[in-house]
Amino acid sequence: MQRKITVRKVEATIRDQLLIKQRREQIIQAASQVFSQKGYHQTTIKDICAVSGLGPGTIYNYVKKKEDILFLIYDKLTTALDESLLETIKRHKSPLDQLREALRKTIDIIWENQDLILLMYRETAALDKESMYNVLHRESNFVNHMEEILEMGREKGIIGNKNIRMAADIIVYLLAFIPLRRWNLRGRFSEKEIKSELIDFVLKALCIRGGRGRKSKD
């Protein structure tokens, strides 16, 4: 029986929603920097205070514990990835255009958040069960939306790969290639080359029909 997902809420003592959003963004930015440098377990609230410019009392108005901050970071990243696919599906009718833009947007988000992607791989186990289920559920939604795009392409005869569910999972994992292999890519390839080759590789692996794998010039 599938577990029912309860939306994980981070409590705040402040009621002003705009202020909550602004302060949490400030906390997230600072914590992301420190977590990436020192690791989650070695980081203290005092460290986050030093980078954010906020005092402990202020921070605890917006989160109850350090784990809340880690969850907010994950939630922000997984939400951005998922929403980018939803926007792409609404924006384009052509499955091939959807796929190309979905790959571009996802790669751009991953490129801009490489340290956070690595943090997710390293520190997910630090989350409590409810937080982890929420993060994994959001990631599953992202894979499902990628699958939706691929399925439309298969139905239109554009995508030759028949195992769409597996392809969606592989694509999502493959795009994490950027932060996971950046130590070997840095200095050898430009950002443009890496992004272009990744998109081209995925399109070819999907057996795209009726068009070139590589995107034409904008």
Task: Tell me briefly what this model is.
By secondary structure, this protein is an all-alpha fold. The protein has eleven helices and no strands.
Architecture overview:
The protein has 218 residues and is an all-alpha fold. It has 2 domains: 13-64, Homeodomain-like (Arc Repressor Mutant, subunit A); 66-218, Tetracycline Repressor, domain 2. Helix content is 68%, strand content 0%.
What descriptive keywords fit this protein?
218 residues; mainly alpha; Arc Repressor Mutant, subunit A; Tetracycline Repressor, domain 2; 2 domains; 11 helices; disordered C terminus
Could you list the spans in which at least 5 consecutive residues all have pLDDT below 50? 211-218
CATH topology tier name of the largest domain: Tetracycline Repressor, domain 2
| Structure class | mainly alpha
Number of strands: 0
Mean pLDDT: 87
The geometry reads as: globular
What does the secondary structure layout of this molecule look like, with pairings?
Blueprint: H1 17-38, H2 45-52, H3 56-59, H4 66-91, H5 95-112, H6 114-123, H7 129-155, H8 164-174, H9 177-180, H10 182-185, H11 191-205
Helix pairs in contact: 1-2, 1-4, 1-6, 4-5, 4-7, 5-7, 7-8
